[in-house]
Write a structure and sequence with these properties.
The chain is α+β, with helices and mostly antiparallel strands. Helix content is 23%, strand content 15%. The protein has two domains: 3-68, no CATH class; 71-143, Gcn5-related N-acetyltransferase (GNAT) (Aminopeptidase), CATH 3.40.630.30. The chain has helices at 5-8, 10-14, 87-101, 114-122; strands at residues 3-4, 21-24, 49-55, 61-68. A four-stranded antiparallel sheet has the order 1-2-3-4. The chain is elongated and about 70 Å long.
């Protein structure tokens, strides 16, 4: 879906504000994004992402936002009576083998316990900058 700001708010165009087109960028045009900080670590795999852009009337990209499928590693639990064992390391090795088998090079987990943060760091995890925020859309009402 392509939307233009003037369609949403016609008064903005008449007051001298620029008109922007918001659209899903086809994969064939993704190379246009390489010059932006968004792509500083490369572009996501097209089969796992879609990218939306905001463009000026002249086609200049002035906004980017991507939706990407991400693998969330969740639910690691070890019975307290068995925590000072090799279980965590063995589970991590199995998980890494599985991720490699599926060609998944990046995944994430949410950690709030400082002791688990130390274990994660030793296991090869790196802390991401910023804070995790969730967008939870309400369920659509049914008639």
């Amino acid at each position: 879906m392509i939307t233009q700001e003037s369609e949403q708010n016609p008064s903005m165009a008449t007051r001298g504000f620029p008109t922007y087109t918001i659209r899903r960028l086809p994969v064939e045009e993704w190379d246009r994004l390489r010059a932006f900080p968004f792509a500083s670590n490369g572009l996501p795999p097209p089969e796992l992402a879609m990218i939306f852009v905001a463009e000026t009337a002249g086609g200049q990209i002035v906004g980017i936002w991507a939706a990407m499928t991400a693998v969330h590693l969740d639910g690691l639990w070890i019975d307290p009576a068995h925590r000072d064992t090799t279980i965590a390391g063995r589970l991590l090795r199995e998980m890494k083998d599985f991720l490699r088998e599926k060609a998944i090079s990046e995944s994430f987990t949410v950690i709030s316990d400082p002791a688990v943060m130390c274990l994660a760091h030793k296991g090869g995890f790196t802390r991401c900058p910023g804070d995790l925020w969730v967008l939870q859309l309400p369920a659509e009402e049914k008639d």
